[in-house]
Amino acid sequence: MLATGMIERLTAHGYQVCVIDPEGDYGTVSDIIQVGDSQPAPSVEEVAQLLEYPSHSVVANLLGLPFDERPTFLTDLCGAINRLRDRTGCPHWLVVDEAHHLLPQDAAAPCCALLTGMPGLLLITIDPRHLAPGAVQAVNLVIAIDAQPSATMQSVAETRKVSLPGQPPDALTVGEGVIWDLSRDSHLVHFCAAPCRSRHRRHRRKYAEGDMGWERSFYFTGPNGQHYLRARNLIAFLDITDRVDDETWIYHAHRGDYSHWIHDAIGDAELAGDVAEIESSRWTSAEERRAQLRRVIEQRYTLPV
User: Fold this and answer.
1) Using the 8-state DSSP alphabet, how is residue 117 labeled?
2) Cβ 230 vs Cβ 36: under 8 Å
3) Closest CA to 4 of 138, 173, 122
4) 242-291: per-residue pLDDT in tens?
């Protein structure tokens, strides 16, 4: 939500912002043009054409772009943005959410080289250790807003081969953060962020439509391992749930696999509790429980028709 608030304030003061949104998280931000979706993904040319108009801030939704194509998309877009800036000075800011998707540890050197010295760059990641070292070298300000800011700051310090200028707090509450200015020998600054106006839909679109990755997908195998059906998101999960045989469906329900996946991979404890109740309803038919499962998921996640 900190990034959403920053984007709101930048656009409100007339700055042009380009947001790279791999998970569909920024669909509720007002006064900004949305391009791309789960199908199809936007092209670099489409984004660059919109940025030709300084009054247009743009969110590029990359849900429809395969993971392995995202680093190339960012490299090409950075090249286009640098050319635009040479001519017009815009866009003023480039915001890359889930930056570890676009700048993974093995990211090609040309992409990181384009970021070096790039002004108005905001990289957002769950852990700097998942980023390419060259990307970490490109930043001059670190903001930690997670529950363990010390780990975030220390991972940057290790990559940059520098020492922390102080000890971050052990934990932060929602709305708090710590700033470390790497461009000068300054101390850590604790702050409280102003709330944003937009309702942030963190990861809702990803879980509904996007590819959650191989490790976080659900796999229907059946009691004897006779299947290997991968559900890469909630849409695929419900589709397979409707088609798979009763023996396989009941096998996973009795083990509590559905609720465990929703709790651990999706992080929705409330929905996981509802699903666990459905799984434990042994006297209800499999067909009825499948219908109940679809109902509780669709109540919390808006799925395309």
Assistant:
1) T
2) no
3) 122
4) 889 999 999 999 999 999 998 888 877 788 889 999 998 877 888 899 99
Q: How confident is the model at residue 201 (pLDDT cuts 50, 70, 90)?
A: very low
234-243 vs 286-300: helix axis angle to the nearest 10?
160
CA distance 101 to 22: 8
Ramachandran bin of 26, using left for φ above 0, alpha for ψ from -120 to 50, beta for the remaining angles: alpha
Q: How far is CA 12 from CA 8, 29, 183, 294, in A?
A: 6, 12, 27, 40
Neighbours of 166 (CB within 10 A): 12
Alpha-carbon torsion (260, 262, 264, 270), positive or negative: negative
Distances from the Cα of 55 to the Cα of 9, 32, 121, angstroms: 15, 9, 19
**H-run or E-run covering 83:** helix 70-88
Side-chain-side CA neighbours of 159 within 13 Å: the count stands at 23
Sole residue written with tokens 């919390």: 300
DSSP 103: S
pLDDT at 91: 95
What whole-number percentage of the chain has pLDDT above 90? 32
User: How far is the C-alpha of 184 from the C-alpha of 90, rounded, in Å?
Assistant: 27
Cα separation of 29 and 59, whole Å? 9
Q: Which residues of 47-84 are buried (b: 16+ CB within 10 A; e: fewer)?
A: bbebbeeeebbbbbbbbbbeeeebbbbbbbbbebbeeb
Length of the chain: 305
Contact assessment for residue 61 and residue 47, using Cβ atoms and an 8 Å cutoff: no
Per-residue pLDDT reduced to its tens digit, 217-241: 899 998 988 888 999 888 889 989 9
User: Which of 20, 15, 54, 52 lies closest to 35, judged by CA?
Assistant: 20
